[in-house]
Amino acid sequence: MVWLEKEEVGVVVFALTAAAAAVVVVAVVVVVVSVVIEVVAEDS
Questions:
Q1: Which domain of life does this protein belong to (predicted)?
Q2: How far are the Cα atoms of 12, 17, 41 from residue 8, in angstroms, in the given order?
Q3: pTM of the model
Q4: Distance separating alpha carbons of residues 40 and 6, to the nearest angstrom
């Protein structure tokens, strides 16, 4: 097991947090877009 320096741990945690946030944002965008498409399709 390789021990990481505190700075490296911070970078890894930040990267994982950023990746998780990106996944959440993408999921929300996909849901919103799909809902908008359904509403537009129903109106037309």
A1: Eukaryota
A2: 6, 14, 49
A3: 0.63
A4: 50
